[in-house]
Amino acid sequence: MKAPVPFSPQNLKYVSSLYRRSLRTAHDWINRTDFYREKAAEIKLRFEQNRDISDPKELQKVFETTEELLEKFQHPDPIIPPRRPGGIEYDRNVPPRYEKGPANFKNTV
Amino acid sequence: MLKQFSIAAKNATRLPYMMAARVVRPSAFTPMRFTRFVSTGSPLTKEDVLARTVSVLKSFDLKNSGDKIGLNTQFTKDLGMDSLDYNDALVALEEEFDVVFDDKSANEIKTVGETVNYVLKNYLPEQQDLDREVR
């Protein structure tokens, strides 16, 4: 990766992307909203702490750590809306509901 | 040839094909008839999306929360959100509408109206012929 330029628009975009990804990862793991908000506040604090970094090398290091953390905490079964790519209903035709199903099996032997 | 074809087409339209289908299919497997909204596009209206978006945004502590949030409200200027706050809001909206803001569009979104348009464009309507429990 090229050395990042501090306070540039590209940098803002990349950091936003990282932030969104971390929030999504947190949401994958945490089911309860109040716990998730706590975690989100913690994530925000961590990003805020690195707000004023003006040294490109340090910035690069922070980015690498963040990517590593994101990879480390990646959820094995993340929440994906069913009909989005990767979701369970994606690209599939779910059979419609029937008014009456087939008759139950009866053992006559 | 063409004439024949048109006659055949006329006959086909006259056929009560619903009845024909019912004869072919065993009665035990007649699917429930639902109106499909898929062809008509998303059943969400712009007002719905805006109202839900506003209710999600109100759950964040905004600087100028007294102001009315409309389509032209800018996240950073009017609501006093910084870039982290507004990305947080976007992730919350993703959950609300089951859409996914991809990186490119999320970086370009600046107003509430743009968010609403994105949601309307990318919203997947529910499949109507499924059980509500399955959906």
From TrEMBL, chain A:
Residues 76-109 are annotated as: Disordered. Residues 89-100 have a biased composition (Basic and acidic residues). CDD domains: Complex1_LYR_NDUFB9_LYRM3 (cd20263). InterPro entries: Complex1_LYR_dom, Complex1_LYR_NDUFB9_LYRM3, NDUFB9. It comes from the Eukaryota. The keyword DNA-binding does not apply. It is found in: Mitochondrion inner membrane. The keyword Acetylation applies. It holds the Pfam family Complex1_LYR. It is a peripheral membrane protein. Residues 15-71 form the Complex 1 LYR protein domain. One of its GO terms (biological process) is mitochondrial electron transport, NADH to ubiquinone. GO terms for cellular component: mitochondrial inner membrane. Accessory subunit of the mitochondrial membrane respiratory chain NADH dehydrogenase (Complex I), that is believed to be not involved in catalysis. Complex I functions in the transfer of electrons from NADH to the respiratory chain. The immediate electron acceptor for the enzyme is believed to be ubiquinone. Mammalian complex I is composed of 45 different subunits. Belongs to the complex I LYR family. This is NADH dehydrogenase [ubiquinone] 1 beta subcomplex subunit 9. It comes from Dekkera bruxellensis.
From TrEMBL, chain B:
Keywords: Electron transport, Fatty acid biosynthesis, Fatty acid metabolism, Lipid biosynthesis, Lipid metabolism, Mitochondrion, Phosphopantetheine, Phosphoprotein, Transit peptide, Transport. One of its GO terms (cellular component) is mitochondrion. Residues 47-123 form the Carrier domain. The keyword Lipid biosynthesis applies. Carrier of the growing fatty acid chain in fatty acid biosynthesis. PANTHER family: ACYL CARRIER PROTEIN (PTHR20863), ACYL CARRIER PROTEIN, MITOCHONDRIAL (PTHR20863:SF28). Belongs to the acyl carrier protein (ACP) family. This is Acyl carrier protein. It comes from Dekkera bruxellensis (Brettanomyces custersii). The lineage of its organism: Eukaryota, Fungi, Dikarya, Ascomycota, Saccharomycotina.
